[in-house]
Amino acid sequence: MHGTRRRPERDIGILSPSLAARSLAWLAWALVVLTIVPGGGTARAQATPPPATPAVAPASSLGWEDDFETEDGTLNVATTVAPISSIVRNVGGTLVDVHGVVPDGTNSHTFEPAPSDAALLSRADLVIVNGLALEEPTIALAEANLREGAAIYRLGEGTISPGEWAFDFSFPADEGDPNPHLWTSVPFALHYAELVAGWLSGRDPANAAAYAANLDAFRLRLQALDAGIRAAIGTVPEANRKLLTYHDSWAYFAREYGIAVVGAVQPSDFSEPSAREVADLIEQIRTESVPAVFGSEVFPSPVLEQIAAEAGANYVDGLRDDAPPGEPFSPDHTYVGMMLTNMALMVPALGGDAAALATVPAWDTYVV
Ligand SMILES: [Zn+2]
After folding, report:
1. Higher-confidence position of 133 and 299
2. What per-residue confidence (pLDDT) applies to 6?
3. DSSP per-residue string spanning 215-268
4. What is the pLDDT of residue 50?
5. C-alpha of residue 66 to centroid of ligand 1, in Å
6. How far is the CA of 3 from the centre of ligand 1 (A)?
7. Hey, which residues does 129 pair with through a beta bridge?
8. CA-CA to 158 of 20 to 30 Å: which in 40, 64, 127, 193?
9. How far is the CA of 262 from the centre of ligand 1 (A)?
10. What is the distance in A from the centroid of ligand 1 to the CA of 220?
């Protein structure tokens, strides 16, 4: 059940125009595929991909602030950071209640849940976290309050093995915890969605086909996002494919899309860098001809702007690793919207063109 915030698609109790359009578009595509499949795999490959979304953005989204009731037969899915909440919403669609425990725009790495979160976690059926040491206090609170039959599910550990962990500037190997921001790589985000679909289906087998349909629609969107990012990065001159950011959240993005992370300004304890570290960074930006340095939406830092100015690099503020753009319940307040915003900032600042992403919609894709 929901709180008091406006969520028209569910509150009116019937399909909203946007939801209906999505469902019809999906149905039309399903019929095309069903008619073509007997012809074999080649014919199927020629089927026009589904118009997974209406041409016009919906007025709102379902977000991830649902209230949890334990008697309404709806799965209660507690999540942590916004990218994970958005992925769970796209896979669970209207069939699940989703509540993100980490408020948007807060430092997720040092976040301590409030006592009131214990009550929420005690009503969850699934607690879906990133893991890889990102949300230890929230996991501890969940473990202490889980009701019978509920469980904690870790996306990061389910996606990469320790051999693939990235250790780097703010997540050094000698401190033991890897860089946890797997979702900046779209293929990893897709793997997250696949894990979520499996977990939801396991807990709610009656709706397994619906979760699979939602996953299929979301996969198409993520594939379009991934292809657009590859094309956009492909326009960046090779010598400019270097990232120097404030918050160190781009390791897996960089690995996936062929960019070198040459540095991150934020120390591993989330303090400000020392004068010596600042001087070293300025020197590094000069010698490596780093074209731009990027600030973080969640961690505003005047130091970075100074570093850029002294080193003669462009300063671009506002990269987002776990804070989607727009207000909660707005259609672009999604994981995809966040990555589109990042590319619109990053690619031109490195001398490329992000036009390949102009046709990728930001809003949710769930069909059920
Ligand atoms: Zn982060």
Report:
1. 133
2. 40
3. HHHHHHHHHHHHHHHHHHHHTS-GGG-EEEESS---HHHHHHHT-EEEEE-S-T
4. 52
5. 24
6. 28
7. 154
8. 64
9. 17
10. 26
In this prediction, residue 54 carries a pLDDT of: 53
How far, in Å, from the CA of 250 to the mean position of ligand 1?
9
Gap from CA of 144 to ligand 1 centroid (Å): 25
Q: How far does residue 181's CA lie from ligand 1's centre (Å)?
A: 6
Q: Which residue has the tokens 């149905």?
A: 27
Structural domains of the chain sorted by starting position, each given as residue range(s) with its CATH number in brackets: 8-227 (3.40.50.1980), 236-357 (3.40.50.1980)
Which range has the worst mean pLDDT, 24-28, 112-116, 265-269? 24-28
Q: What's the first-to-final CA gap in the chain, in angstroms?
A: 17
pLDDT tens track for 272-284: 899 999 999 999 9
Task: Give the contacts of 352 (CB within 8 A, at least 6 positions apart).
Answer: 232, 233, 234, 235, 236, 237, 240
How many angstroms is it from 302 CA to the middle of ligand 1? 18
Distance 342 CA to ligand 1 centre (A): 14
Strand partners, 243: 261
Q: Which residues have CB under 8 Å from 306's CB, separation 6+? A: 278
**Count of Cβ atoms closer than 10 Å to residue 151 Cβ:** 14
In 3D space, the residue among 174, 153, 175, 178 whose CA is nearest the CA of residue 163 turns out to be 178
Cα 59 to ligand 1 centre (Å): 29
User: What mean pLDDT is predicted for residues 226-231?
Assistant: 98
What does DSSP assign to residue 289? T
Coil, strand or helix at 346: helix
C-alpha of residue 140 to centroid of ligand 1, in Å: 19
Taking alpha carbons only, the member of 9, 138, 158 closest to residue 87 is 158
48 CA distance to ligand 1 centroid (A)? 38
- Ligand 1 centroid – CA 305 distance (Å): 19
* pLDDT greater than 90 at residue 15: no
Average pLDDT of the residues in 251-278: 92
The structure's pTM equals 0.85
Residues in contact with 147: Cβ distance below 8 Å, sequence separation at least 6, in sequence order:
70, 122, 123, 124
Residue type, 97: D
For residue 40, what pLDDT band results from cuts at 50, 70 and 90? very low
